[in-house]
Amino acid sequence: MRQKIACKLCNSFEYEIWLKSAEGFNLVRCKNCSLVYINPQPSARCLEEMYKNQKVFFIGASRGRIKDYLKNKSRFWGAAQSKIKEIEKLFPHKGKLLDLGCAGGLFLDVARDSGWDVQGIEPSKWGKDIATRYLNLDVIQGTLQTVRPTKIPFDVVTFFDVIEHLQDPLTELQRIKSVLKENGLLVVTTPNIESFVAKALGISWSMITLPEHLFYFSPETLSKMLKKSGFKVEKIETRNSDIPYNGVQLIKKFLGKGNKELRFVSNEGVEQMTSNANVKQRIGHIIGHWFYAVAWLLPYFRQGEGLVAYARKV
Predict the structure, then answer these.
(1) Sequence spans of domains, the chain
(2) What is the mean pLDDT of residues 48-71?
(3) Is 300 exposed, middle or buried (0-12, 13-18, 19+ CB in 10 A)?
(4) Does pTM surpass 0.70?
(5) How many CA atoms lie within 13 A of 86 on its CB side?
(6) Is cis: bond before 169, omega within 30 of 0?
(7) Contact by Cβ (8 Å): 154, 97
(8) Class of domain 46-201+215-241+299-313
(9) pLDDT tens for residues 120-131?
(10) Can you tell me the distance from the alpha carbon of 179 to that of 222, in angstroms, rounded to the nearest whole number?
(11) Contact 94/114 with Cβ under 8 angstroms?
(12) DSSP-based three-state secondary structure for 264
């Protein structure tokens, strides 16, 4: 069952259809505030059934990856440590940190080893069990709507790649505010619908996963929602995600659907699998390498594929 909704940022019912998917979902843009979201949206029951048994959504929680991590933490520390370092620039005094939607707990483990007093909330029993069993972390199963963390108030709350999945992101941000200390820090990551890659690939963009992702933010709409929920935005940055993959997708879009003459080649770009490529394929190959060369510059123009927002409770 699907239900039409008003914009969760400005409450307007006026929108224009931005994209249509093969599954019949409309991705719309609010005419008043420019927030992009699915409308109509799946019911809460449909979403609950969809997520209940799908482990793929809990990235970092697979038993195989946890075992690899325990054998060699350094392989997984880089990304998590860079997040911790950015947090500590804005909050240098290590205190209590809550990770919402913590999956298997890899980020929490790194934060704990860095000196933070950590706790996590994870809706998946599967993810929660792995975090507690393998990493001995303090993780509660549920959501901030259904459970109350025990270490309130927190100095920092991290909210990595979760907000786009929620039916009411504004209300969830207000819940987060209620568990933060005064001047506490919130860190939010989510895909950037205004990125170069999103605009170039359209419905083929890997971050458009319907109906899992219900909302798609730009730097402006994320900033507006944070301010409306009672936060002061310190900064919003954009980051690159998977440059080689997006290079491949751009080539495929240029060549047309169904092209199978492409493959990944490490992290240094893409190459064709055939030696007798026609002119269009050769141009596509150039596009892929051109994208790989310039993609590193995109965040400097707020065109990176992912958003990272830092905001304080006021």
Answers:
(1) 46-201+215-241+299-313, 243-298
(2) 59
(3) exposed
(4) yes
(5) 19
(6) no
(7) yes
(8) alpha beta
(9) 999 888 888 888
(10) 20
(11) yes
(12) strand
